[in-house]
Specification:
- This protein is α/β, with parallel strands linked by helices.
- The strands form two sheets. Strands 1, 2, 3, 4, 5, 14, 15 and 16 form an eight-stranded mixed beta sheet that branches. Strands 6-7-8-9-10-11-12-13 form an eight-stranded parallel beta sheet.
- α4 packs across α5.
- Bound molecules: N-(iminomethyl)-L-glutamic acid and fe (iii) ion (FE).
Length: 399
C-alpha cells in the first residue's frame, strides 16, 4: 500500500442506509485506487509506505458537481437588480438579457482569457472537496465559440487536480443571428455536433427544452443526432413549464434530467424505468425565487437516484459552492443530509456515467477522498460556510 488512513469513520455511500458507514475503520490506497477497506484494528500499518491517523474524523468520497456552466464571460448583476424590481427570468430572457447576454460576453474573450476568468470559479469548488466537475458549453452558440468553451473545459482537466466531464449544450438558447430555431438546430446537427465529436471535445450533450429554449421536437432531433455520434444525452427539462422533456430523455436512455420543478408525479416512473438520474438544482430554484417544487416525495418513494448540483452559472444560480447547495437541497427541497450526500457522490457519478470510477468508497474505485473534521456527516449540510476539508486526496495523492 502507498497510503493507509486509519482511525477514521468512513461514509462509503454503499448500500442504502446510514451513509454506508464503517466506524473505527481504515482504508488502503495503492496506485491511486482504493485497495483495502476494513476495521482500524485489523489493518497492518507496517504494510503502508505512509500512514495517516484520522483522529476519529469522517472520510467521504470526493464530492461531485455534476451540472455546472462555470465557463463564461461577464456577469449578470444588472439582471439581478431587475429581478429584485420584479422582472421575471423569462421576461429578461425574451428582451435580450439572460443567456444571450452572457453569450455576447463569452464570445468577446479568447480561449486564454476565458480560462483565466473561469478558473477561479472552478478553484472555489475544488477548495470544498469537489474532485469531479461537469462543465457545459452553451454560451458560444456558434461553431468557434462553442468549441472554445469546450477546449477551456478540457484544458482544466490538465491544469487542475480534478476529473472533468464536458457537455456540449449547443441547444441552450437561440443566438441573435438566427431568426428561426429550426435553422439553428439544423446548423448544430450539420456543423457543430460532428466537429465536437470529431475533436472528442464532449462526453455528452444537453439541451434546454423550454418555451424560451427549444421545443420537444427540436430537442429530440438534436439528441438523436448526438446519439448517432455516440454521445449520451442529458436535458434541462421542466424547469419553468412542462414540455415532456424528461420523458424524452428517458425514452432515449439518457444519463440525467435536470431541474424538474414542473415534472408531474406520473412521469417519475419513466425515469425509474429508464435508469435516468434526476438532477435537482436548488440554487436555481432559490435564486429565481421559484415556488413550484419538484416531485421529491414521489422520487423518494420510487427510490429514484437523485443527484444534487450547483448549476453554477451567471444567471439562475451564481453560487460557486457545492456545500452551500447541499444546505439548500435540505432546506428548499426537504431532502435529508444523507440523500443529499448521495446526491453529490454516488448518484452524481451515475449522472455522469462514472459510477464505476468514483462516487463511492469501495475497493477498486479511484482514491478521490475527503477527510472532514466533523463528528457526524449531517454537519456537511446543516450550515453554510462552517466546514471545509481537512485533507483532499485525488487519485490517492494528498493535495
Ligand atoms: O441551468 N436553464 C437554462 N440554463 C441555465 C441558466 C443559464 C443562464 O441563465 O445563463 C440553468 O438554469
Ligand atoms: Fe443548467
Amino acid at each position: 500500500m502507498d497510503t493507509l488512513i486509519t482511525d477514521i469513520n468512513i461514509a462509503t455511500m454503499q448500500g442504502s442506509t446510514d451513509y454506508g458507514a464503517l466506524y473505527d475503520a481504515a482504508i488502503g490506497i495503492t496506485d491511486g485506487s482504493i485497495s483495502w477497506l476494513g476495521a482500524a484494528a485489523a489493518c497492518d500499518e507496517s504494510a503502508a509506505q505512509s500512514v495517516i491517523h484520522g483522529a476519529g474524523r469522517w472520510l467521504t468520497p470526493g464530492l461531485i458537481d455534476c451540472h455546472t456552466h462555470l465557463v463564461y464571460g461577464g456577469h449578470r448583476a444588472q439582471e439581478f437588480e431587475l429581478k429584485l424590481q420584479g422582472e421575471s427570468y423569462e421576461h429578461i430572457a425574451r428582451n435580450g438579457g439572460g443567456i444571450v447576454s452572457t453569450v455576447a460576453a463569452t464570445r468577446k474573450l479568447n480561449e486564454q482569457q476565458l480560462a483565466a476568468v473561469s478558473a477561479p470559479r472552478l478553484k472555489r469548488l475544488l477548495a470544498e472537496g469537489v474532485t469531479t466537475v461537469e462543465i457545459k458549453s452553451g454560451y458560444g452558440l456558434n461553431l468557434e465559440d462553442e468549441l472554445k468553451m469546450l477546449r477551456v473545459a478540457r484544458q482544466f482537466a490538465r491544469d487542475h487536480e480534478v476529473n472533468i466531464r464536458t457537455t456540449f449544450l449547443g441547444a441552450h438558447a437561440l443566438p441573435v443571428e438566427y431568426q428561426r430555431s429550426e435553422d439553428y438546430i439544423d446548423f448544430l446537427i450539420d456543423t457543430v455536433l460532428p466537429k465536437v465529436a470529431e475533436e472528442n471535445l464532449a462526453d455528452a450533450v444537453d439541451f434546454f427544452c423550454e418555451s424560451i429554449g427549444f421545443s420537444y421536437e427540436q430537442c429530440r432531433r438534436f439528441a438523436l443526432a448526438a446519439l448517432k455520434l455516440g454521445l449520451p444525452v442529458k436535458g434541462h427539462v421542466e424547469q419553468l413549464s412542462y414540455l415532456e422533456g424528461a420523458k424524452l430523455v428517458a425514452d432515449l436512455g439518457g444519463l440525467s434530467v435536470d431541474h424538474l420543478e414542473y415534472l408531474p408525479e406520473s412521469d417519475v416512473t419513466f425515469l425509474k424505468q429508464a435508469g435516468t438520474v434526476a438532477v435537482l438544482l436548488p440554487g436555481a430554484f432559490y435564486c429565481l425565487a421559484e415556488t413550484q417544487l419538484p416531485p421529491v416525495q414521489k422520487m423518494l418513494d420510487l427510490d429514484l437516484p437523485i443527484a444534487i448540483a450547483t448549476d453554477l452559472n451567471p444567471g439562475s444560480s451564481p453560487i460557486a459552492s457545492l456545500l452551500t447547495i447541499m444546505n439548500l437541497a435540505c432546506t428548499q427541497f426537504h431532502l435529508t443530509p444523507e440523500t443529499v450526500l448521495r446526491g453529490v457522490t454516488c448518484h452524481a457519478a451515475r449522472a455522469l456515467g462514472m459510477q464505476d470510477e468514483v462516487g463511492q468508497i469501495s475497493v477498486g474505485l479511484k482514491a478521490d477522498l475527503v477527510l472532514w473534521d466533523i463528528e457526524v456527516p449531517a454537519q456537511l449540510c446543516y450550515g453554510m460556510n462552517l466546514v471545509q476539508p481537512q485533507m483532499v486526496f485525488k487519485n490517492g495523492r494528498l493535495l
